[in-house]
Amino acid sequence: MAASLALLAACQSTETKQETTATTAPAEAPKADSAGAKKYLSEPLISNIYTADPSAHVFNGKIYIYPSHDIETGMPENDKGDHFAMNDYHILSMDSVGSKVTDHGVALSVKDIPWAGRQLWAPDAAFKSGTYYLYFPVKDKQDVFRIGVATSTSPSGPFKAEATPIAGSFSIDPAVFQDTDGNAYMYFGGLWGGQLQRWQKGTYDANAAEKEPSTDVPALSARMGKLSADMKHFDGPVQDVKILDEAGKPLLASDTKRRFFEGGWLHKYNGKYYFSYSTGDTHLLVYAVGDNPTGPFTYKGVIMQPVEGWTTHHSIIEVKGKWYIFYHDTQLSGKTWLRNIKVTELKRKADGSIETIVP
Ligand code: FUB
To answer: Which parts of the chain span the membrane according to its record (predicted)?
Structure first.
């Protein structure tokens, strides 16, 4: 462990686009059970840098992972997330789950995004007509989170950012779902440090409370925007992602074990649309199911129990007929802002419901 942490420190200042490889631990190997040691369902995918918020995709038959790149900056830890002060993205790839992981080096830096101020948070990616799109949240120069897009001819970058953020975008955690009919949708939003509570009136309210309402009013919703054909704009107004309880009523803000907090992801299974997300301060990954990508979605249950660390952030993909969930915890560092990504299999029951994972 000491050796890998020394390597981590050395790699954090690396700004060159240099490929390095690290061998993946077997996905299901539990950590050695010495007295008092914690056991983990799976091991970190890489240890040469700290990584979080893994958005995974299969491109050209390989698995590409678009994570945040966590670094130590000395910023104070607070509910606004100032301690997550990331400056760049590294893209990772692997031939299959359990094979060695390639770190493709720096793919995009905050200094190369013309409109950006600080904090490159959880990204996602998509592919269409020969171009790869990297979607990223970053605070603009007024300290308001916006979502930007950058393009490349390669899934591993380097990516070139557009001159301005996506018009009408705000908050954090973009996740792009491309349906089988060719339509693409971006899901986004996050509470507290993600600033979603500041957009309740439709425009940014710098004086809004730092947290969402905690009473029995409908919970604040994630947002969804259909993407235009060029994948760089919203094609129409951004909508609420409605999540209902079993009686068809919207989840309440006080229902903190089920309401949306951040880190939305959409996948399709057997013709149904699964919207999954983090409950933030109650530390769960949960999901809701709908009949179309625009919702509404009905809450169904817990995907993952709390990980080590404040919370986790996930993506779900199918690889060669099996489903996997990529997520993060803090096994390598023990610090909430220095995380490491992992993967484990996602299993379902015959009715399509997801089996709860204990990480
Ligand atoms: O990595 C920064 C933020 O932490 C992400 O945007 C959230 O989803 C949480 O994982």
So the answer is: none
Contacts of 317 (CB under 8 A, 6+ apart): 56, 57, 58, 63, 267, 323, 324, 326
Query: What is the pLDDT at residue 238?
Result: 97
- What predicted TM-score, i.e. pTM, was given to this entire model? 0.93
pLDDT score of 7 more than 50 = no
* Position in ligand 1 atom list of the atom nearest CA 84: 2
Q: CA–CA separation, 127 vs 179, rounded Å?
A: 12
Residue at 359 is within a domain: no
Instruction: Verify whether ligand 1 is closer than 6 Å to residue 69 (CB atom).
Output: no
Q: Kind of pairing, strands 239-241 and 222-226?
A: antiparallel
Helix (H) or strand (E) holding 14: none
Indicate which residues carry an active-site annotation.
Answer: 53, 262
| Ligand 1 neighbour 53 (Cβ under 6 A) | yes
Domain that holds residue 338: 2-345
Question: What is the distance in A from the centroid of ligand 1 to the CA of 262?
Answer: 8
Instruction: Judge whether 89 and 108 are in contact, CB under 8 Å.
Output: yes
DSSP code per residue over 211-238? S---SSSBPPPEEEEEBPTTSSSBSS--
| CA-proximal residue: ligand 1, atom 10 (nearest) | 313
Helix (H) or strand (E) holding 11: helix 2-12
CATH number at residue 333: 2.115.10.20
Q: Return the pLDDT at 268.
A: 98
Number of domains the chain is built from: 1
Among protein residues, the one whose CA lies closest to atom 5 of ligand 1:
122
Q: Tell how far the Cα of 239 is from the centroid of ligand 1, in angstroms.
A: 22
